[in-house]
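Structure in, sequence out. Go:
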């Protein structure tokens, strides 16, 4: 079967897990996605691991057609590496998405002066207040707010931007139409109407613990800088900050309101390592 480069990228995005470094290495050998797909299903390149060719041969293209039709009927955009709407910032992250799904306006993803705001799910009322206030003030100035749609800091940041009339982008660790976290449907709709909800996973894909870590490279990649509002020593926010550092981004941290509390120790570690303290939105706006 002859495929266009776009069709091949979409199929490959369904065959292999997002963030797979082995897939990215194959694209360093094969520039044309259609050629790579053909080589995989034919098994003609003995240097490609058998498990990868086996996955490609076993894949049912009818599933790709079903996902495509579902997206078409539900106004979900499928954006591949070959499309004009593919964010330039994604091309500079580890294992750029072969394709991703977008509910809302893909144009907001092209803004190169966005701010990522991340933090704990079980955040203190103080931290939630800070996240909402910083997001609102920065969104008012035309800078989209990027976050991960989780409860706590993420949701506060999204709502802050929405309520201020600004733009915001949610990067999910599950499919766009999967109800997770439960009870956040109103926020998802508000984000789609004021920015975009995106995911590397098909619309009905359920969440998995590993998915959230994998998507963090995208949360960092869409923004010019990252603000960590609340983080413990084992927080996923530190993983996002690590991606941002690898990408050459600025890291801002809300100084801990209690240096003895475990839930703020991640912030202390970042500050010790040279992150910039943010005492007001103006501290960040000057760098965006």
């Amino acid at each position: 079967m002859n495929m266009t480069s776009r069709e091949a990228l979409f199929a490959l995005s369904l065959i292999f897990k997002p963030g797979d470094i082995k897939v990215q290495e194959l694209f360093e050998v094969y520039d044309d996605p259609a050629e790579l797909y053909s080589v995989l299903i034919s098994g003609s390149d003995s240097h490609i691991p058998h498990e990868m060719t086996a996955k490609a041969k076993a894949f049912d293209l009818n599933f790709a057609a079903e996902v495509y039709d579902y997206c078409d009927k539900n106004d979900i955009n499928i954006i591949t590496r070959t499309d004009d709407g593919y964010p330039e910032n994604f091309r500079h992250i580890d294992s750029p998405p072969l394709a991703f799904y977008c509910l809302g306006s893909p144009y907001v993803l092209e803004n190169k002066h966005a701010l990522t705001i991340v933090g704990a799910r079980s955040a203190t009322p103080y931290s939630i207040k800070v996240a909402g206030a910083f997001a609102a003030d920065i969104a008012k100035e035309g800078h989209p707010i990027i976050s991960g749609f989780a409860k706590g800091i993420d949701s506060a940041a999204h709502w802050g931007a929405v309520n201020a009339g600004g733009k915001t982008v949610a990067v999910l660790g599950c499919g766009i139409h999967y109800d997770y976290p439960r009870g956040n449907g109103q926020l998802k709709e508000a984000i789609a109407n004021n920015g975009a909800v995106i995911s590397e996973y098909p619309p009905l894909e359920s969440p998995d613990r590993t998915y959230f870590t994998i998507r963090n490279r995208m949360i960092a990649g869409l923004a010019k800088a990252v603000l960590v509002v609340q983080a413990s020593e084992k927080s996923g926010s530190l993983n996002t900050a690590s991606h941002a550092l690898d990408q050459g981004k600025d890291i801002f941290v809300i100084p801990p309101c209690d240096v003895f509390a475990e839930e703020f120790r991640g912030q202390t570690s970042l500050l010790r390592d040279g992150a910039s303290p943010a005492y007001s939105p103006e501290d960040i706006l000057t760098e965006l």
